[in-house]
Amino acid sequence: MADQNGHIDLGPPRDTAAGLGFPGPPPPIYTCTLTPELVAKAREELQEKPEWRLRDVQALRDMILKDHPNLRTRLDDAFLLRFLRARKFDYDRALQLLLNYHASRRAWPEVFQDLKPSTVKHVLDLGFLTVLPRPDPQGRYILCLRPGKWKPNDYPFVDNIRAIYLTLEKLIQPEETQVNGVVILVDYAGVGLSQASNPGPLLAKKVVGILQDGFPIRIKAVNIINEPRIFKGIFAIIKPFLKEKMAERYVLHGSDLASLHRVIPQSVLPQEYGGVSGRLDMSAWSRTLLEAEEEFVVEFCQPDPLEGVIMPDALLFEGEQGGAHGEDSFRHLRSQLYYCY
């Protein structure tokens, strides 16, 4: 929760269900910070057994050291647990997720080069995104995106992606988020044709690929509000790259706030969305990210972690193969956008 200075508390873990502050990451020497209720939830939903947790982490660590000894990656317990939880403690799938996580940096340097909060301050200042200070009743923090705040002549769209990625990196640090997942709320108010035609299919494919197969986070729902008629064209760009399970988690509410309140209670929503949690504060999360500058410098402003690493033949990111086909698809979809508009 934002304090009087507009900060979201990142100190010791707190009772997040009561909305008392965004929890901090686990301690440097790993000690489980999950409540008994979340331990039980992780056991049921993620196949995480507390008595085997460190054994499982060591097994993944051994696989990395044996199969990819040149991979420059963190090997501490807390970091590797993110990938095991995201793949329900399947060692092979967790390892592939870790490789995809690092491969995304090589495949998309315009996003990951010099990735730190100060480089996206203009995105934060514009109000493109924030994280609501209180989690929902399931303990899931809500990432709020407002694409209508951005105009193509403001800055490249890829800067928005950089800000989203940094936000997800910060959100995934606490164990609570690793177990509960996150909810995304997208407000399309003010989105016109110029925004709708960004991103194109190739950019959309990369974003969806990272979120589905290259980042250790559980996206439990994507709620869309105030979507214009042209959203059909926007979704037509995204949907071909969504897995069936993820596509089913998209919920379109239009301007019906009562529909939104059935899935996100008013107690955690700001007044702008019919809630009772005060005005929408865009500055608190901005401060949280900017104060984490140093940790992101350590994490992302380093040499290529895959340098010298031999990757599997089939990997998530395949460069720009099929680019001509993608451009043809984009031209077709753009004509659809004009028709909807």
UniProtKB/TrEMBL annotation:
Highest taxon of the lineage: Eukaryota
UniProt cross-references to Pfam families, sorted A to Z: CRAL_TRIO, CRAL_TRIO_N
PROSITE patterns: CRAL_TRIO (PS50191)
Disordered, as annotated region: 1-22
InterPro entries: CRAL-TRIO_dom, CRAL-TRIO_dom_sf, CRAL/TRIO_N_dom, CRAL/TRIO_N_dom_sf
Domain CRAL-TRIO, residue spans: 116-281
CDD domains from the UniProt entry: SEC14 (cd00170)
Protein name: Alpha-tocopherol transfer protein-like
Organism, as annotated: Danio rerio
